[in-house]
TrEMBL record, chain A:
Residue ranges, compositional bias (Polar residues): 22-32
Record's subcellular location: Cytoplasm, Cytosol
Main location as per UniProt: cytoplasm
Assigned keywords, A-Z: Cytoplasm, Initiation factor, Protein biosynthesis
Protein's name in the database: Translation initiation factor eIF2B subunit delta
Native source species: Rhizopogon vinicolor AM-OR11-026
Keyword Transcription among record annotations: no
GO CC aspect terms: cytosol
Transmembrane segments: none
Pfam families: IF-2B (PF01008)
Family indicated by similarity: Belongs to the eIF-2B alpha/beta/delta subunits family.
The keyword Cytoplasm belongs to this UniProt entry's keyword annotation: yes
Subunit structure, interactors included: Component of the translation initiation factor 2B (eIF2B) complex which is a heterodecamer of two sets of five different subunits: alpha, beta, gamma, delta and epsilon. Subunits alpha, beta and delta comprise a regulatory subcomplex and subunits epsilon and gamma comprise a catalytic subcomplex. Within the complex, the hexameric regulatory complex resides at the center, with the two heterodimeric catalytic subcomplexes bound on opposite sides.
UniProtKB/TrEMBL annotation, chain B:
UniProt xrefs under PANTHER family: TRANSLATION INITIATION FACTOR EIF-2B SUBUNIT BETA
InterPro entries documented for this protein: eIF2B_beta_subunit (IPR051855), IF-2B-related (IPR000649), IF_2B-like_C (IPR042529), NagB/RpiA_transferase-like (IPR037171)
Entry protein name: Translation initiation factor eIF2B subunit beta
Subunit structure and binding partners: Component of the translation initiation factor 2B (eIF2B) complex which is a heterodecamer of two sets of five different subunits: alpha, beta, gamma, delta and epsilon. Subunits alpha, beta and delta comprise a regulatory subcomplex and subunits epsilon and gamma comprise a catalytic subcomplex. Within the complex, the hexameric regulatory complex resides at the center, with the two heterodimeric catalytic subcomplexes bound on opposite sides.
Polar residues compositional bias, start-end: 122-134
Source species of the chain: Rhizopogon vinicolor AM-OR11-026
Length: 420, 375
């Protein structure tokens, strides 16, 4: 259907709707329609699709269209978030999904396993089980068929929760290793080699990298420092614990925020070790930032334009710190690098399920006074990630060294590889 | 203080309000301002004074007591200063009859230009001329000590009624031009629950269709109340946690927030989280608009340097006792207000028009008298 024909059909149906409408339920409805028609083809496609859906009988059409106009009426503000898509509970499994993967999917969707490193290690461990249980069907080779076997498993995990960059990089490496595996090897040996490669990956890129980062970042911490950290990063936790074990005397300010309130876990670990801690929520950060000597945060992924994609709220912390000339140091392993360029937090983000999944509200406030579910005119969004622009970051500590954000795109070079 | 017989009922009423302020049984700038005006009205109606200085001293002492009870509620002091300003104005009008202080000639003269910059004290004619010139106000009359008070009181009551009216119509006046500030299909960010901003947004919603994004505003979570109120008024709202303010800022057209008190340098105290929103907006060059009544104008400005300038609230809403073993090992901070610098604010929308932060000092000069800055 060409654009002109689509427009014609829209006009026809609009006229039909105007003719059969009794009282206009939405005052802004007719304003919205011309506004939408003015938008380019991409916008015309969804509106025509929704208008086509209402193409039944004249009455059915007009009521359906009125329903569609009510959803289109949900003003522009809500439409711009419509691409986020809420996580759905994992539906009936299609195809043969290994029980380890099913369990992992459940753990992801309930946020029992959260955090870039944790998810990646859990995924790879589950895949090791899948590979060991895999039997090459006759007339097929392991190196060709295993990848096809893994695809539905990966899709199942993605349907539970969108894949993290770390998982993506690890799986890409795994697929490369699979296709590189020697055809002549007996099956069990091939599988063992693959599992060994997975173990090496985890060891090199995550565990040892973490230790190198801990040592490097530890040198940045001096006695008497006040370190501010946001939410909970496994790497930053390692750094702080390591520095404290080395005998350095410092204090930590943990800043936390909804939706996940992960900082409390970090707080219990640090205070159990005896580190003097202060805890506050994100809006209060303006009152303490003047006393902070360094800000340490973790990352979900690094992008080649130098931006850091991390837990929602990190951008605010980095911005306030930069305002007060406090250095912002991001601790991040190189396997989190992504070649994409990300400019804002909208192109790629994830919403936490609404409702009080993380029991993040204080008990001092009774639940029924809080708005926990959608209502008419009310939408609830809990983005989980945000993008910190390179201007707010002072340095990134990786296992290949301490680099400024502008050099992040040269990380693959530093690793001596053409692909990550 | 004033004569003893009339001060006892006054004292009781003042003491009641002072203890309510101290116990935070009355909170919020608008509430406290209203209560203060009512108390002052009672005080003045029962007060006995035979010249203007005694009256001013009575009111000043009442003001001092109330401000000491709750120094963080700046509107208490502001209202007292406003009442004093009105009293002095009425007194000067009454004692000069038809003569007007401000010069009416239109000639441009350097002397007049310079004189207008002087504190009002010097523009007021000397006291000596008053007592002789007009017989309408008998001050310090030994035969009839209440004559002065009798003639002045009705005028004072009117003046206080003006202040009260202004306080009661604050929301309406601020919302008058709401539709000029908000356009169709805009996305507005607001935080916390400010009744001024609420009235403003609801007034604009009658003319425009737009979306409001409200941040939770931990730990009071007053954003939830605001979201419920706005969505039930038909405005499409999106409730987000504070952590996503920076993430969403690139799509936001305006930030509209309320204030607790506006300081003389154009900065303001506002609910915690306002500094984050304003700084993020500045990073994205998004305009920040503050809706506040003029009763929030405070003639002080060097308050924010003290750590204690921020009111601190109960830490259990940040880390409650349900966290058990963490409670005694960890310091918890829960400041109630943020100080927002004047450079981060683009405009103040008040019931008396829109002003940039750089002209706040002028508003304060017009609203209050210099000698009242220190009660």
């Amino acid at each position: 259907m060409t654009k002109a024909e689509r427009r014609e059909q829209q006009e026809r149906q609009r006229a039909a709707k105007a003719a059969t409408k009794s009282t206009g339920p939405q005052p802004g409805g007719s304003n919205q329609k011309p506004a939408q028609a003015k938008k380019g083809a991409p916008a015309a496609a969804p509106t025509s699709a929704s208008v086509k859906k209402g193409g039944k009988g004249p009455d059915g059409k007009s009521t359906k269209e009125m329903k569609e106009t009510t959803t289109d009426d949900s003003a522009r503000g809500l439409r711009i978030f419509s691409h986020f898509g809420l996580p759905k509970p994992p539906g009936p499994t299609k195809g043969d999904i290994h029980p380890a993967i099913i369990r992992l999917g459940l753990q992801f969707s309930e946020f029992k396993i959260a955090g870039a490193n944790a998810r990646c290690i859990a995924t790879l461990t589950a895949f090791k089980i899948v590979i060991q249980d895999y039997i090459t069907p006759p007339n097929n080779t392991l190196s060709r068929h295993l990848v096809t076997h893994l695809s539905p498993q990966i899709t199942h995990l993605v349907s539970a929760r969108p894949m993290s960059i770390t998982m993506g990089n690890a799986i890409r490496q795994l697929k490369l290793d699979i296709s590189d595996s020697d055809i002549d090897l007996p099956e069990q040996d091939a599988k063992n080699t693959l599992c060994q490669k997975i173990d090496d990956y985890i060891n090199e890129r995550i565990i040892i990298a973490g230790q190198v980062i801990q040592e490097t970042a530890g040198t940045k911490i001096k006695d008497g420092d006040v370190i501010l950290t946001y939410a909970r990063s496994s790497v930053v936790e390692q750094v702080l614990v390591g520095a404290w074990d080395d005998g350095k005397q410092f204090s930590v300010i943990v800043v936390d925020s909804r939706p996940m309130l992960e900082g409390k876990k970090l707080l219990s670990v640090l205070s159990a070790m005896g580190i003097p801690c202060t805890y506050l929520l994100l809006p209060s950060i303006g009152s303490v930032i003047t006393e902070v000597s360094i800000v340490l945060v973790g990352a979900h992924s690094l992008h080649s334009n130098g931006a850091v994609y991390s837990r929602a709220g990190t951008a605010l912390v980095a911005m306030m710190a930069k305002q007060h000339s406090v250095p912002v140091v991001v601790c991040c392993e190189t396997y989190k690098f992504s070649e994409t360029v990300q400019l804002d937090s909208f192109t790629k983000n994830e919403l936490a399920p609404s409702g009080d999944l993380f029991s993040s509200f204080p008990l001092t406030r009774s639940k029924d006074t809080l708005t926990l579910s959608k209502a008419a005119n009310l939408e609830i969004l809990n983005p989980l990630y945000d993008l910190t622009p390179p201007s707010s970051i002072t340095a990134v500590v990786t296992e290949v060294g301490v680099i400024p954000p502008s050099s992040i795109s040269s990380i693959p070079l530093a690793l001596g590889r053409t692909t990550l | 203080m004033a004569t003893d017989t009339s001060s006892i009922p006054n004292q009781r009423v003042v003491e009641t309000l002072a203890s309510r302020l101290r116990r935070r049984q009355v909170v919020g700038s608008h509430e406290t301002a209203l209560e203060t005006v009512l108390v002052l009205r009672q005080v003045i109606s029962k007060a006995r004074f035979s010249n203007i200085d005694q009256l001013v001293e009575i009111i000043r002492s009442v003001g001092r007591k109330l401000v000491e009870a709750q120094p963080k509620e700046h509107t208490v002091g502001n209202t007292v200063r406003k009442v004093l300003h009105h009293i002095r104005e009425e007194y000067h009008t009454a004692s000069q009859g038809t003569a007007v202080v401000s010069t009416s000639n239109n000639t441009l003269s350097i002397a007049r230009f310079v004189l207008q910059g002087q504190p009002r004290k010097q523009n007021i004619p000397q006291k000596g001329t008053l007592n002789e010139s007009h017989g309408t106000l008998k001050e310090n009359n030994p035969d009839d000590p209440d004559a002065f008070a009798r003639t002045l009181k009705p005028v004072l009551m009117e003046a206080i009624q003006d202040v009260l009216d202004e306080l009661e119509t604050v929301y309406d006046n601020i919302s008058k031009n709401a539709k000029d500030h908000i356009h169709s299909d805009e996305i507005i960010l607001t935080i916390g629950k400010s009744s001024t901003v609420e009235a403003f947004l609801k007034a604009a919603a009658a003319y425009r269709k737009y979306t409001v994004i409200i941040a939770d505003t931990a730990p009071s979570y007053s954003g939830h109340d605001m979201a419920q109120s706005l969505s039930s008024a038909g405005i499409s709202t999106v409730l987000v946690p504070d952590s996503s303010i920076y993430a969403l800022m690139s799509r936001i057209n305006k930030v509209i927030i309320g204030a607790h008190a506006i300081l003389a340098n154009g900065g303001m105290f506002a609910i915690t989280g306002s500094l984050l929103a304003a700084t993020a907006a500045r990073a994205h060059s998004t305009p920040v608009v503050v809706c506040a009544g003029q009763f929030k104008l405070t003639p002080q400005w060097n308050l924010y340097h003290e750590y204690g300038a921020l009111d601190f609230a109960d830490p259990s809403s940040v880390l409650g006792f349900e966290e058990g073993n963490l409670v005694d090992k960890v310091d918890v901070i829960n400041p109630y207000y943020d100080f927002v610098r004047p450079e981060l604010i683009d405009a103040f929308i008040t019931n008396d028009g829109d002003h940039p932060p750089s002209s706040v000092y002028r508003l304060i000069k017009e609203a209050y008298d210099d000698e009242d800055y220190e009660l």
